Amino acid sequence: MNTADTMDVERRYKRRGAKADSEAGMEFT
Q1: CB 4 within 8 A of CB 28
Q2: Residue pLDDT tens, the chain, 29 long
Q3: Residue-wise DSSP of 1-29
Q4: What residue spans carry the region label Disordered (predicted)?
Q5: 15 Cβ contact list (under 8 Å, min separation 6)
Q6: Half-sphere exposure of 2 toward its Cβ, with a 13 Å CA cutoff?
């Protein structure tokens, strides 16, 4: 659980792509 949170935060910090962030959030939810 903590790992997923960290990955999400790192991905958001990198801001690689809003689409990827949205997909990742949907998958995590």
Answers
A1: yes
A2: 567 777 777 777 666 555 655 665 556 54
A3: -HHHHHHHHHHHHHT--HHHHHHHHHHH-
A4: 1-29
A5: 21
A6: 0
